[in-house]
Write a structure and sequence with these properties.
Structural class: alpha+beta
Oligomer: single chain
Helix content: 40-55%
Distance between the termini: 44 Å
Largest sheet: 6 strands, antiparallel
Order of helices and strands: HEEEEEHHEHHHHHHHH
Shape: globular
Number of strands: 6
Strand content: 15-25%
Length: 306
């Protein structure tokens, strides 16, 4: 399989220049958040190459604040359609009859500050945990093929119908899902099935994924676990246990983290006041929001105001 830089060189020779033929561009550069850059390029002629992903683990023992994990992906074979109704088209993204074939590149940057919220006060059990906590003391770069799960997430990032604030919530959640799947490539472990046996049933797994989507829909209107379990028709205990196993975090921590990430977006990108953001996220007082924001991000809300 070609290295990622080789794929980009192939793209260059195919006429896909950063300064031309860009059909779609999306980026986010919020301090202390996930920063990303997504580009779709027109392929001027049919271009065939293995799709590739890459993880860069940057470790600096002298300057730990500069540590980061970077994910890069390059996918081919998608087609771009000018029709505005494409977001709801059943044939997209790879079976579209549109004539414009694309090469799509993704760059996701996770800082030490951002990732620390997942590892603070958490017992490290394996290499993946050590990498997330920057306890692995050697920098590395690892390339890997793009499996079906990663491809589905990348396709979803490119082809969705969300706009505005909901788009921000959706994309950031998908990027974290992509990080989860990419970390699985660090070690080759024999798959032994799920610890929670009920997850071996596809319908149960679908119920947990549905619960996650419901949580994202209620960012500004918190929902109880009891209400959540009723909506997915599952036992509360199963929902909590299944969520932790599939996503590596508790329902509460996931929900709070997503709320805070959306809060960053509203403060930094949209320029809303702390009062407006507090209300948008369903907090009863500014002080409660400010305390939660500081706990999860290490920043005061006012520090992100432009």
């Amino acid at each position: 399989m070609p290295q990622f830089r080789d794929i980009l060189q192939l793209a260059h020779r195919a006429g896909i220049e950063p300064s031309m033929d860009v059909v779609y561009h999306k980026e986010q550069q919020i301090p202390g958040s996930i920063n990303y850059n997504i580009n779709r390029y027109f392929a001027q002629h049919e271009w065939v190459s293995d799709e590739s992903g890459m993880m860069r683990y940057h470790y600096d023992i002298k300057n730990p604040e500069n540590n980061y994990i970077e994910l890069r992906f390059c996918i081919t074979g998608n087609r771009y359609c000018y029709e505005k109704s494409c977001a709801s088209c059943k044939n997209q993204p790879t079976d579209c009859n549109g004539k414009q074939m694309t090469v799509d590149t993704f760059n996701f940057h996770f800082s030490n500050t951002f990732l620390s919220q997942f590892t603070n006060n958490t017992k490290l059990k394996n290499k993946k945990d050590e990498v997330l906590a920057f306890k692995h003391t050697e920098a590395f770069t690892k390339t890997f093929p793009i499996c079906g799960k990663k491809r589905n997430v990348l396709d979803a990032i490119l082809n969705h119908s969300y706009t505005g604030a909901l788009e921000n919530i959706f994309i950031n959640a998908k990027i974290q899902e992509l990080l989860l799947y990419s970390l699985d490539c660090l070690i080759e472990e024999k798959q032994e099935g799920f610890t929670c046996k009920f997850l071996n049933d596809e319908r149960s797994r679908e119920g947990i994924y549905k619960a996650r989507e419901i949580l994202l829909e209620h960012i500004g209107n918190p929902i109880t676990i009891r209400e959540l379990s009723r909506k997915v028709a599952m036992n509360e205990c199963y929902v909590k246990q299944g969520f932790r196993e599939l996503f590596g975090t508790t329902i509460f921590d996931f929900f709070q983290q997503q709320r805070m990430e959306h809060g960053k977006y509203l403060l930094y990108e949209k320029g809303l006041s702390v009062t407006d953001v507090s209300e948008a996220l369903g907090y009863s007082s500014i002080s409660h929001f400010s305390a939660a924001f500081k706990k999860h991000t290490g920043l005061k809300p006012c520090e992100l105001l432009k």
